[in-house]
Amino acid sequence: MRTLSLLVAGLFCAALWASAAEPEIVSVEKVWGKGGHNAFTDLVRFDDHWFLTFREADGHVKGDGSIRVLTSRDGETWESTGLVSEAGVDLRDPKISVTPDNRLMLLMGGSVYRDGKYVTRRPWVAFSSDSGATWSKPQAILHEGDWLWRLAWHDRSGYGASYLRRGGPDGPMGCTLYKTEDGVGYEKVVDWDIVGCTETTIRFELDGTMIATVRSEGDPKMGYIGRSRPPYKDWTWKQAGQRFGGQDFVILPNGQMWTGSRHYGDKQTTVVARMTLDSYEPVLTLPSGGDTSYPGMVYHDNLLWMSYYSSHEGKTDIYLAKIRLR
Q: Cα–Cα distance between 123 and 304 in angstroms, integer?
C-alpha cells in the first residue's frame, strides 16, 4: 500500500510539474487595425525601441500592398513611423532586421499584377539609418521569380533562403540558401533538396551552427527542421511531423527553441510550439483564427514577445502577445 501511495504521489507531483512547465499568456493586445487587411508581421528590438512591421492592403492578395512600420519604446504605446511603397508593386510579407552597420533593413516580397492577374515577383529591400524615422526608396534584389523570405545575420553576414519554381512555371518550388554582406548583393551557398520548399526561417546557435525551419508545400505538406555547420553546404533534415505556415522561431540563452506558426487543425490558429532538432510540439494557442499566423518573435526580459495577425475578431488585424515560457 505504501508503494502504491508513493507511486500515486509521484504521478501527482509529475502532473503538477508538467502543468507548471507549460508556457502562459501574460497579455495579448491588438496594436493596429486601420488598414483594410493587415497581415504578415515581423518584430525586432533595436536601439531600446520595438519595431513591428506588416503589410497593409485591401485584401490578402488584392491591390498593391504597402509596408507599415510601428515603433514603441515600452511595447504598450505604438506610433506609425514608416510606410514603404512602390508604384505598381504589391509589397508584402516584410521581415525586419538589424544589419552589421546598425541600419534597420526591410526585406519584402514584391508581386506584380496586370488586370488582376499575377505576372511576376522578386524580393525588394529598403533601409533606415535613423532608427526608422526615414526609409530609403525600395530596390529590387536577386532575380525575377525569387522570394527571399527572411534574413538572419551572423558574423557580419546575412543568410536567407529564396524559393522559386524549378524547371519552368509549373515546376515544383525549391530553395536556395544565399549569403550577403550588405543586404543588396547575394552569393549562392547551396541548393536544398526539399521538394516544395517555401518559407524558411534561419537562426544561429552560439557556436555558429545554423538551424532552419522550412515550410514545404510538396507531398506531403510538412515542416522540416534542418541543421548545418559552416560553411553551411551540408545539411541534416528531419520532418517536423506537422505542417508549418509563416513560421518564426527563437533560440533562448539556455538553448531551448520555441516556434510560432500557423496550426492546421479543425480550424486555423496561431500556436507556440516547443521545438528540438527532431521534434515540434504545439503547446499554446493564441487568440486567433481564420486568416492568421506569420509571427515575429523576440525573447526579451524573460518574456517571449510575439507579433502576429489574425481575423478571429472579424477583421484581419495585428496583435502582440507577451508569453512567459517555462
A: 29
Q: What's the length of the chain?
A: 326
Q: What single-letter DSSP state applies at residue 186?
A: E
The answer to whether residues 81 and 72 touch, using CB atoms and an 8 Å cutoff, is no
Contacts 24+ apart (CB under 8 A), 194-197: 194/218, 194/224, 194/237, 195/219, 196/172, 196/221, 197/161, 197/163, 197/173, 197/224
94 to each of 56, 74, 195, 309, how far by Cα in Å? 11, 22, 24, 13
pLDDT tens digits along 182-228: 999 999 999 999 999 999 999 999 999 999 999 999 999 999 999 99
pTM of the full predicted structure? Answer: 0.91
Specify the pLDDT at position 18.
42
40 neighbors 308 (Cβ within 8 angstroms)? no
Alpha carbons 180 and 188: distance in angstroms, whole number: 9
Whether 122 has a pLDDT exceeding 70, the answer reads: yes
Annotate 254-292 with b (16+ C-beta within 10 A) or e (fewer).
eeebbbbbbbeeeebbbbbbbbeeeebebebebbbeebb
Residue whose entry in the numeric block shows the C-alpha cell 504597402: 66
Q: Cα–chain-centroid distance for residue 27? A: 20
